[in-house]
């Protein structure tokens, strides 16, 4: 079974990113309040680690239920390769592998201390490459899904 259209998956991905602003705001406020952080640059790395965990909880929770809010909006569901609901363990593997959307260009750019705009351009180029690479998969799935043993399917409305 082929994946939903790439344009729909990327629209869902973009919408998910917009929704994550709310998650970041609430989690950042909670972290700042509990850690008594007064300056945004204080406790930067612990905040990033905290957000990584919060994102993990968010995605693993919703993926193991089948859909995030963005996926419901775009009628997309995540299942395992047999079409069954995703277990929390498999959802956690999908979450870890989903970082392939971001980590490779950030790791390559990090030693060069590039200006932020150049890093954004490199990151967007990688995201476009990674998205279009799904065309090489036999079922047009994203490669992190193939590696995690999951796939995106059309959800019934």
UniProtKB/TrEMBL annotation:
Organism expressing this protein natively: Simplicispira hankyongi
Any single GO CC term annotated in Swiss-Prot or TrEMBL for this entry: membrane
Domain RDD: residue ranges: 4-149
Chief localization: membrane
Name of the protein this chain belongs to: RDD family protein
Superkingdom: Bacteria
Keyword line: Membrane, Transmembrane, Transmembrane helix
Pfam family, one: RDD
Places the protein is found: Membrane
Entries under InterPro entries matching the protein: RDD
Membrane topology recorded in Swiss-Prot or TrEMBL: Multi-pass membrane protein
Membrane-spanning intervals of the chain: 12-34, 46-64, 92-110, 116-133
């Amino acid at each position: 079974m082929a994946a939903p259209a790439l344009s729909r998956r990327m629209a869902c991905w973009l919408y998910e990113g917009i929704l994550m602003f709310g998650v970041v705001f609430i989690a950042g406020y909670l972290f700042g309040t509990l850690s008594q952080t007064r300056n945004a640059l204080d406790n930067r790395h612990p905040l990033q680690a905290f957000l990584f965990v919060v994102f993990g909880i968010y995605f693993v929770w919703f993926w193991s239920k089948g859909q995030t809010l963005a996926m419901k909006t775009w009628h997309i569901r995540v299942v395992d390769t047999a079409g069954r609901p995703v277990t929390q363990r498999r959802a956690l593997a999908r979450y870890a592998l989903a970082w392939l959307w971001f980590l490779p260009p950030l790791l390559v750019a990090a030693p060069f201390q590039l200006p932020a705009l150049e890093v954004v351009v490199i990151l967007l180029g990688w995201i476009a490459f990674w998205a279009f690479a799904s065309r090489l998969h036999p079922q047009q799935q994203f490669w992190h899904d193939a590696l995690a043993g999951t796939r995106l399917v059309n959800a019934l409305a």
